[in-house]
Amino acid sequence: MDVQNRRVSATRLHSMIGPLAEEGPAYASLARGIRRLVANGRMLHGTVLPSERELVTELGLSRTTVSRAYSELRDRGFATARQGSGTVITVPGGPASGGQEPMPDGAIELDAAGRHAVDLTCAAPSAPVGMVEHYEAAMAQLPAYISGMGYFPLGLPELRSEIARMYRQRGLETSPEQIVVTNGALAGFAAVIRAVLPPGSRVLAESPSYPNTIASLRHHGARVSAVPIGPDGTDLEAVGQALRRIQPAAMLCLPDFHNPTGTLLDNEGRERWARQLDAAKTVGIVDETAVDLWWDREPDVKPMAVYSDRIVSIGSASKSHWGGLRLGWIRCPRSLQGAVTSMRTSLDLGAPVLEQLVLTRMLQTGNGLPDESRKRIRAERDWLHATLSDQLPGWKANLPAGGLSLWWNLPAPRSTVLAEAAARHGVLLAPGSVFAVEDHGLEHWIRTPFALPHEELERAVPGIVAAWHEVA
Question: What are the HTH gntR-type domain coordinates in residue numbering (predicted)?
């Protein structure tokens, strides 16, 4: 759908705003409700609002009230009057460009046309409804911290307590002292690998895998070896053989909705994997950034660290809450607690206080995605899977129970040229080779994230289909 033609009906706007506040002028309540929809990402830049007459009929308000509300939106930069269209939503200052999750340098080539393309290189949802309200509540708490120096190298005590509580709820006994708050999951990985891996150490990782983590290991000087993971999940027999053969110092593990395959490992598999790591005297570095990204039903699985005291767990708020918080955490086994905390303080002096207050509040009011976001993303997963399966019948992908992407098996090894062709058709894709631990191969695979707004996915599908017919 073209942005300039996006419209919201009076009935739909009414349901999104909900009942108007009884206190204060009605026009102010209406304008405030629309501003919050814009701030929370539920009303997009370029959306045409219903006419004043339509909204008067729907809400039962006077024409003067609706007119004044629209006038206040225009005065505050949230709307503009457009000839022939009516009142159109604007994000003050215009929608920010960029903001996507970056891939390693040189992985995706962008040209001038790419600025207007649908970006399917990023697998991350937008902020949930209510984010602005969480920031407003955190701002009210902030004065209590301003009198101090503002440095919390290991994280705010209340945030560390909340994260420890989450682990205990999942069946892993954890104290706040075992939690280290970081500036995102990658910062957590950086601290852990510097704490446990001398440069030149051997590290084992499943292939495909998340490319930024592999890049971080290589930047540290680690020698990364690959063990294949299939579309149905971790091959524990192959993992055991590779651990015995390579004897790596550490292994990167993604048992929770693996990126990009979306597979989930059961408790029996987690226990077996942990025992294999212990037998090889290998530290397990478990990526838990997708642990809360389930769409059908919450899985009955425990953290891998339940089964071994050599496992370091790394979590993040970027996917389950919002990437703009830039907050992650490390759950340290007690044997590595000193080394990890010492290395953490050598990298920087802590995460921003305001964002930590925001995340603390979000964890106190609910551990992960709200039901509304979960329902929306599940619907987009189902729609994209059904639509591409129908229009490209040779493409095959499992319908993942969690994660943020579909991992398509192509009928021909054309992933890289497909990504190049798709860019010409206005869609940015990450070829399978980007996720290969050994920097090559996986030409039979392509990843398509599905957490984008529906109109973006609708724009992307024709470009993907046209690109495939062009290169296949």
Answer: 24-92
